[in-house]
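User: Fold this one for me? It's Acylphosphatase-2.
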Amino acid sequence: MYTEDEARKIGVVGWVKNTSKGTVTGQVQGPEEKVNSMKSWLSNVGSPSSRIDRTTFSNEKTISKLEYSNFNIRY
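Assistant: Here's what I get for Acylphosphatase-2.
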């Protein structure tokens, strides 16, 4: 919920999901500076009840068109 709110404030689209391993996975899309702001928030702030041990961002690439129209939580 906090991640979804922050993504909307920053102005990125995509999704996030808690995994059965106690980690979080997802996808973030938007202008590079906004994606970087979201990555910083995920790495350093996160949800109030979260404990951030490390963050790993992978499959980063430039895209010509956004694949999502908003940001949401997947279950």
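One thing worth pointing out: Helices lie at 2-10, 32-44.
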